[in-house]
Hints:
Layout: H1 3-17, H2 29-42, H3 47-59, H4 65-83, H5 119-122, H6 155-162, H7 169-173, E1 179-182, E2 197-212, E3 217-225, E4 230-236, H8 241-247, E5 250-260, E6 263-267, E7 270-273, E8 284-287, H9 296-310, H10 320-326, H11 331-339, H12 344-374, H13 385-394, H14 401-414, E9 421-426, H15 432-444, E10 449-453, H16 457-474, E11 483-486, H17 492-504, E12 509-512, E13 526-532, H18 539-546, E14 553-558, H19 564-570, E15 575-579, E16 590-593, H20 599-611, E17 615-619, H21 634-645, E18 651-654, H22 660-671, E19 677-680, E20 693-699, H23 706-713, E21 724-728, H24 738-745, H25 749-760, H26 763-766, H27 784-800, H28 810-819
Helix pairs in contact: 1-4, 2-3, 11-12, 12-27, 14-15, 15-16
Amino acid sequence: MQPSIEKLQKFFKLEADIGYSNRAVIGGFERLAPSWEAEARNDAIPEDLIMTISERLRNYGRLSPTSRQEALHGLWNRIQRTLGEPKTTLDTSPEQPPSEKATPQHTQPSTAEISPRSVAVQKTLPPRPALKPFKPSETPAALDAPVTSLIGIGPRTAQTLERLGIRFLRDMLYYFPRRYIDYTKLKPINRLLYGEQITVIGTVENVQTRAIKNGRQQITEALLSDGSGKLRLTWFNQPHLNQRLQRNPHISVSGKIDQYLGRLVLNNPEWEPITQQQLNTNRIVPVYSLTASITQTWLRRQMHQVVNFWAPHLIEPFPEAFLRQADLLDLPNAILQIHFPDSWDLLQAARHRLAFDEIFYLQLGVLGQKRRWESKVGRVFSPPDEWVLEQLQKIPFQLTHAQQNAIQDLRQDLAAGRPMNRLLQGDVGSGKTIVAALAMAMIAREEAQCALMAPTSILAEQHYRSLSRNLIEQLGVLNPGELRLLVGATSEQEKQEIRDGLRSGTIKVVIGTHALIEDPVEFSNLALVVIDEQHRFGVDQRSALRSKGNNPHLLVMTATPIPRSLALTVYGDLDLTVMDEMPAGRQEIKTFVLKPLQREQAYRLIRKQIKEGRQGFIIYPLVEESEKSEAMAAVEESDRLQNEIFPEFRIGLLHGRLKADEKDRVMGAFQNGEFDILVSTSVVEVGIDVPNATVMLIEGANRFGLAQLHQFRGRVGRGNHESYCLLIPENEDQIENERLAAMVQTNDGFKLAEIDLEQRGPGEFLGTRQSGFANLQMVNLTDVRLIEKARYHAQALFNQDPDLTAPQHQRIHQTLQERWSAMQPADIS
């Protein structure tokens, strides 16, 4: 077979494989005709056959897919008859993966059929044969094969891929690109502009490699021509490209146009021969997160091989009617389009489908957890109204409406006959502790036990002091020996006394850290578990404490304002009480952003406040100076502040590398007034109560998220004195930082939380709760419409079939179990 005819056969077969979409040749078959004619004449192909083929190629793009199929097959039959070639067909059946390998060496195309459920999406994709409907038992087992089953991936490369979380072929399908580059804009060379991201098709006229920098480096230079002009291409330290470009002179290159000595150039562009399917040029190109020894081009090629072959074999969990009702792209096409999108519209449709799945299954899971928890029997605690009123009158201040509503919620939960499972969410200083104290009083009144778990010893001790004041001094429901503190620093003798008291029931309330969940701790009658700053605990820790009682009531508290959309989604298994009102007399903290050159003004304010008997915080973002950051470090800066700025004041130092007992000692000394200024890193963020502190200076403020900044600010203004928060960014360019501006505009933690969620994503709020949902990769948790849509469909399905036992819901049930595989049925939180 002549080379020109063999080339034509390859193009025709590729075109048949991709559904006659006119994409086998970049720019369509009409672009192939002129260059092919010259090759055919060199091969002495009959002139009338050349003209017939050229005419069909030039008109190919105007035909419908059906007409294109007829035209190519008719043309190929004529070529074989005229030239006397052996009879062959253009059709290629999908190659099945050989038994020893999980994917074929020749992959199927990335374009797939779109269901009629989304007309707008359907019109943008060329047709392809409908996928065979799979049953649950037909899930491709090869997707669970290790990546070493792929040709070219050995044990060493597999270990490298494991750093990216890729161990099995299934992992590759769900390893989504982190961004995309649009290389679909084809332009002739004479119309290129500096700074453009473009794709150019042309012929390499000259290529050479030479040494530079005294032979330490090499540069490969090529001259690309497309008839309209010439463009210089350069690659550094890739001498192997010299021979490759000489073997493949007709190429497609993509990249960002740069300039050198007044001429436009492409430095280190992506390139591919125009005879192969384009993965790195002339398309919307996926960009994946990488690790050492893995290149973007190599990973993109491996992903394309796996995604193209296996995505069409994925099972669609949702029934057809569900997909139409929710207006969703089917899963096989969503996976195809998220990796190798044919258009921005299809990419958006794929993102929408995959984000919908994340919220939908998350919501189904938490609804199931909530139902399991509510099906249990909980002890009833229903104190008389007179008793409750009597306790409220003992409190030496007026409760806010939000606090009163929260107490009413807790009373209803404790009297319902099922275990309470409530999230008490309130901004810094909103008065959550007294609400929890009243709940504990209702439990202790009936000789049952309560446990409060805090994330740090400092917070546990603070709760111990507050609850001693509330339960013993004010309400009088406990005797001093019935309330105890159990932390890591507690002496072994005292620990044993506490364990004995809990086992016998003489201790009614215990406050502690993770020491509470250790095996030796046993309760006589644990009826209420209170967990503070619950996002800092894992599911297993909460479950371990709950398991020490017989279906105890659960109250979790957080001072981190959680946006409603996030709370309803991620904490859907918890009943939500929001305390969005501050107690009377709580002063608004005055917040200012200062330039670094205005630091002396901040020092003057701190000096003035301390001379009036107040105290202050100074926060730094790092523990020690690092070559990678210009951020000031608490360790070095505390020495400078003591020796140069505030020699007349007492300065304490608190940072994460101190041992737990050292942190407690420093914090206790500051609370007792032994230090005037506390220099600290972010360990001071949550819960520390120093009413005498009135100034919070935050250095490198642009390096912190809004949630952190708001928590820092909440450490001051807890007394009766006017308080200040001063934010100094690392440089003047950060003065206009949006987060810092938001801090100045409002003290409302819930408004700030919405902004932080939009800017930084859900990580600030989720903490370690994501067990079973390690990553919400696709969903933007500020997209309220998508969240409400997914929650609506999850709730409707749950109401209809809570156990997912209906035949049409079996695949949904299977997917739910896979996604929640890390969650045990008892882990309800």
